[in-house]
């Protein structure tokens, strides 16, 4: 978010003032290469054409061409139309209306519609919603399925070990609601518009603009009109197997004890027998042959899971990455001209697998810290962009920080000899009994990108062929995401060095981007000369999970926003 700054649009309209950075991620990919590849001795073919890598100032084709720039101003500009951004916008307008202040609040969202890029299970804890709208039921919020049953399991390859869901454990969902988060976000958008928030879907914020003193001035949307060369799913199931309100979680198989992850399966009450299911894999896994997408397909064949899905129909697919660093990874939240809210800075409660309620509350706290400054008659500011350190202070005094602190050690406790089982024992002792009050804070093991071992030190994973009934191939799954991008634009998946994929990633790690991408974006194909391999980027398949930017062992991939309106078109995921 940016309080009172400028927003310039490159060939788009724009706005100005306060920025919330938001992020997402997830898992998998299409094509598994089990044999080591030889590197090519010929010159590296050019892959990246994006102007962020190859400046137009040095491109003779752009000589004498001026792109028209439009600019607009607002009191507050919010980037990202998710639960946090919309909650911040709503709270700002609520305060403005209460105090009879004129306040222009604008929100830009890269998806073509509010909620179209929103993906989650989701099991919603309604704490923040009650604070934002005490009358949310009367307003028709789409929370139709209260949790009625909690099931937690440790899976072995053929069996299930039930784990009692005791009160106070992180996965206890009493009082929560199973929702389709995209529908909930769309409803928040409607509430925001009713209050007078200006929503601009289809506008991708691509650049932060700065004042001369270094404070944030606003944002710029990305250029358009440039030529190309310059895992959850929804299923309908057999009604006899449908148990509305049932929440199922599992850990264990098909992952080994040293790979963090697990599954969810939620029974929705949406007028038809719908379930939402997904598989989470920690991106600190070490085996480059692992494919999160294909682990998901294997999991669905477990004897405890398959009976629910047999006879049903897969109707939607998507993928995203989750920010699971927790309290230890939260960055500095405020800076002159802006502040960070939502999922990007890392407010997800990892053991609960829930972040919507904390994201919403962070947006509300941001709005409450910003409002008195942007509406002050006279305000003495050291920088042109307003600095709001009160937001970080208020957050640390809120229930969000208390909740994050209590669970801070659960995720890093899995880094031990016993892996999953050691982490569960630690959670039982120090969270369930002592409520996270231990006088130490564990550390994470480092960047996810640095955890992969060389392929020669790992065992290739033989995945079974999908049966087309319960398990499926990747490309037919991606087709269900509604993903679409304008074909004639520079690929938004950029490489800092076009030679690194073959010379390092393929040579050392057997091309892990082929497997960690959940949309078939990356594949290694033979050179036309037959002399070696090259990386092919199918950017049109990208579901905007940003896993590649996180897990690439060379940190050579830089995900930038494509033209606004592109990407997945999730329908109430």
UniProtKB/TrEMBL annotation:
Protein name: Electron transfer flavoprotein-ubiquinone oxidoreductase
Pfam families hit by this protein: ETFQO_UQ-bd, Fer4_ETF_QO, Pyr_redox_2
Entries under InterPro entries matching the protein: 4Fe4S_Fe-S-bd, ETF-QO, ETF-QO/FixC_UQ-bd, ETF-QO/FixX_C, FAD/NAD-bd_sf, FAD/NAD-binding_dom
Cellular location(s): Mitochondrion inner membrane
Keywords, in A-Z order: Acetylation, Electron transport, FAD, Flavoprotein, Iron, Iron-sulfur, Membrane, Metal-binding, Mitochondrion, Mitochondrion inner membrane, Oxidoreductase, Phosphoprotein, Transit peptide, Transmembrane, Transmembrane helix, Transport, Ubiquinone
Cofactor note: Binds 1 [4Fe-4S] cluster.
Ranges where the 4Fe-4S ferredoxin-type domain occurs: 533-562
Source taxon at top rank: Eukaryota
TM region positions: 414-434
Species the sequence originates in: Dicentrarchus labrax (European seabass)
Primary localization class, coarse: mitochondrion
